Amino acid sequence: MKKFICIFSCMLMLILGGCSSYERDTSAGEVKKITVNEMQKKLENKETFAIVFTQSWCGHCKDLMAMLDTYLEDHHVILNDLILDMDPDYSSEEAVDISQKTFTDMTGTPTLYYVKDGEIASKLVSGEDGITEEKFDSWVQKNELDKKE
């Protein structure tokens, strides 16, 4: 009987430990890399999502991603990152052309969009100083993208 209680206690601790770890992970935000095809599928399915268009060589894009590393630790924002020059199925020119069919006013990177039910609801464009944490947080709050409780 003691053996059964000991095994049961150990299993219970493992289960509870796993649950608390899971809860911590879901409170943080995330940048998910997506492809042009995945973006098109989200639009066709009329999904609601936030997307940022970036390029691997872009200085403002790198600055944005560095800022997001710390910002997303405290904010549960899910951001889809379409890296225009790294798509496995398209050249960077093709990726831009396809993306601009829907996001017609995208003229540079990084540019963020909030898509609600498959329709563009909001946009945040990089200025001369890039996208600062203050600008990004204001955009997140305006669009109610932070799901952290």
Detailed description of the structure:
Residues 10-25 have low confidence and may be disordered. This protein is an alpha/beta fold. The protein has one domain: Glutaredoxin (3-Layer(aba) Sandwich), CATH 3.40.30. The chain contains 5 helices and 5 strands; from the N terminus they run αβαβαβαββα. The chain has helices at residues 2-27, 36-44, 59-74, 92-102, 133-142, and strands spanning 30-34, 49-54, 78-83, 111-116, 119-125. Pfam families: DUF6568. Residues 13-145 form the Thioredoxin domain. Keywords: Signal. Residues 1-21 form the signal peptide. This is Thioredoxin domain-containing protein.
H and E string: HEHEHEHEEH
Class by helix and strand content?
A: alpha/beta
Q: Gyration radius, to the nearest Å?
A: 20 Å
Largest sheet: number of strands, sense, barrel closure: 5 strands, mixed
Total E-strand runs = 5
Pfam families: DUF6568 (PF20207)
Protein name: Thioredoxin domain-containing protein
InterPro entries: PedC-like, Thioredoxin-like_sf, Thioredoxin_domain
Signal peptide: 1-21
Q: Topology, pairings included?
A:
Elements: H1 2-27, E1 30-34, H2 36-44, E2 49-54, H3 59-74, E3 78-83, H4 92-102, E4 111-116, E5 119-125, H5 133-142
Parallel strand pairs: 1-3, 2-3
Antiparallel strand pairs: 2-4, 4-5
Signal peptide: 1-21
Protein name: Thioredoxin domain-containing protein
Domain Thioredoxin: 13-145
